[in-house]
Design goal:
Length: 116
Amino acid sequence: EVQLVESGGGLVQPGGSLRLSCAASGFTFSSSAMSWVRQAPGKGLEWVSSIYSYSSNAYYADSVKGRFTISTDNAKNTVYLQMNSLKSEDTAVYYCNAVFSTHDYWGQGTQVTVSS
């Protein structure tokens, strides 16, 4: 059974930092493409960042470039999203996504709230 379990969300003040984690199981993590996607209140899904687990190539949305860093630990089957200099507009539910072979998997999401 495929599982993606996100953690690390919470309430943080503007300018603060959080690190999200997504622990994966049930598929070959090292052969997958991992992404973070977010959904702000009342809005649609927004792609944030992607990384291929078999390489170090990472990609970012313009809205987070220079502030967020995606990384993987293949030994732990985990993908991370380090979020710095957080803004109120980063408030959203953050979802972990995995694409492996022709399959697309999603986690349950973790809430990030940026507010003073």
